[in-house]
Amino acid sequence: MDKASTKKIIIFDDDEDILSICSYVLEEQGWEVHAFTDCNNVTEKVSRIRPDVILMDNWIPDAGGIVATQTLKNDSTLKNIPVIYFSANSDIQLLASNAGAESYLAKPFDLQQLEQVIHNVLVNNN
For residue range 74-102, what is the model confidence (pLDDT) as tens digits? Predict the structure, then answer.
């Protein structure tokens, strides 16, 4: 995969284990992964990196995933970047919908589910 076609992803999650596992798997597939343990200055972080997709945890400091996702969706230059909401919360579908996320992934998930959800939002977003 040449540098020009490298896809970028941001993972917002305060769980270091999830960040390292997801980062490892996605980097193996040729993704450029950016990981953050908080969603402070979320628009600034996303604007700087310009990812193809964002993975957003529900319980993330400080504002939380819903507010962070809504902030991105209210930004005219960032709103078209697909957000995959992920959480162990049983109301994940409702939370993702309230946040304005394009998709969601319930924790715990297997890596195949992760790849499938990312693939789906990229296909549906183009």
Answer: 999 999 999 999 999 999 999 999 999 99
Beta bridge partners of 54: 10, 83
Planar angle of CA 60, 64, 70, nearest 5 degrees: 130
Instruction: Write out the two tokens for 109.
Output: 């998930």
What is the residue type of 48?
A: R
Q: Please identify which residue in the block is written with the tokens 């596992």.
A: 21
One of 3.40.50.2300, 3.40.50.300, 2.60.120.1140, 3.40.920.10 is the CATH number of 3-125, namely 3.40.50.2300
Residue whose entry in the numeric block shows the structure tokens 């409702």: 94
Q: What was the pLDDT predicted at 26?
A: 96
Characterize the bridge pairing of strands 8-12 and 103-106.
unpaired
Rounded to 5°, the CA angle 82-25-57 comes to 45
Q: Which of 41-45, 68-72, 122-126 shows the lowest per-residue confidence on average (mean pLDDT)?
A: 122-126
Q: Exposed, middle or buried by CB within 10 Å (0-12, 13-18, 19+), for 42?
A: buried
